[in-house]
Amino acid sequence: MKTCIYPGSFDPVTNGHIDIIHRSSMLCDKLIVAVGNNINKKYSFSLEERVELLNIALKDCPYIEVAGFSGLLADFVREKGVRIIIKGLRAVSDFEYEFQMALLNKKLNPNIETLFMMSNVNYTYLSSSAVKELARNGGDIGGLVPDCIKDKVYEKFRMGI
Ligand code: ADP
Fold first, then answer.
1. Burial of 91 (0-12, 13-18, 19+ CB in 10 A)
2. For all residues of the chain together, what is the average pLDDT?
3. Using CA positions, which residue lies closest to atom 12 of ligand 1?
4. Of 125, 151, 97, 142, nearest to 16 (Cα)?
5. pTM of the model
């Protein structure tokens, strides 16, 4: 069974992520969406909330598993017995960082292959930070995140977090 891992912060998941998830799940039998928890990063949504939002958005997808992880992605990938990491690329600005991470992961675990998938042209401008900025300021996030999680995203910022 071919399994791939799609890692990220998903703080929160956007339709740009969902698009990459659906397109990459066609390349494998099972896709693990790996939700990172880096102690040096400040998240708006807790790990549990980020996992929950993804589970809600992907509830009809039996071949997709959502899993939280802390520590190195290379270790998580090894632990899961997976070789392929999928990353989304929005623009040239994403490339430098992603290129560095791919080479670093390759050095840590030579079995890992990182595949880059081009963003859907409709979501190239979309990021979790943009969604949060809109939600925090009462902007419309319709079409930017899955409809089924929209209220939960607004709710988070109504509480002034
Ligand atoms: P961000 O906080 O930048 O929105 P994440 O760390 O959650 O993103 O991203 C996880 C992965 O999804 C990365 O590979 C990132 O490049 C990719 N990604 C994020 N947003 C999009 C988008 N709109 N279209 C395609 N890929 C995306």
1. exposed
2. 95
3. 88
4. 125
5. 0.94
